[in-house]
Amino acid sequence: MIPDRHRPGRRLPRRYRFPAHFAVFAAAVPLLLIAEALSGSTWNLFWPLAAWTVLVTLHYFVASAYDLDNAWVDDRVTDLRARSYDFDHIQNIEQRVREHDASVTPPIEKRREPKDR
């Protein structure tokens, strides 16, 4: 059985009770905005909601940073290794440029070659 933190599609870190904090935030914000709209007041809750949003965001970043484990590191290393093919491709192009290979010669220079001879 795969532990919950390794299941595909899991988005929220479990550390420091972040899902509970986010659930309260996600439920409270619409309710507060509706209450503010029905009461006829405007902008009274802007700064408290803005501050709360910043705190939830910081909580997310901290919880995500501490939610990392060896399985995440292994997945990330595997992903980076899978993408490293690009370095070989770039080195191949650089080598062909040094050798003045026709496959990397710009078309305008190819047209000039017969005239220069």
UniProtKB/TrEMBL annotation:
Signal peptide: none
Annotated Pfam families: 2TM (PF13239)
Keyword set, alphabetical order: Membrane, Transmembrane, Transmembrane helix
Organism annotation: Thalassobaculum fulvum
Keyword Lyase: no
Positions of the UniProt region annotated as Disordered: 97-117
Sequence intervals crossing the membrane: 20-39, 45-66
Protein name, UniProt field: 2TM domain-containing protein
2TM domain segment(s): 10-63
The keyword tRNA-binding is assigned to this record: no
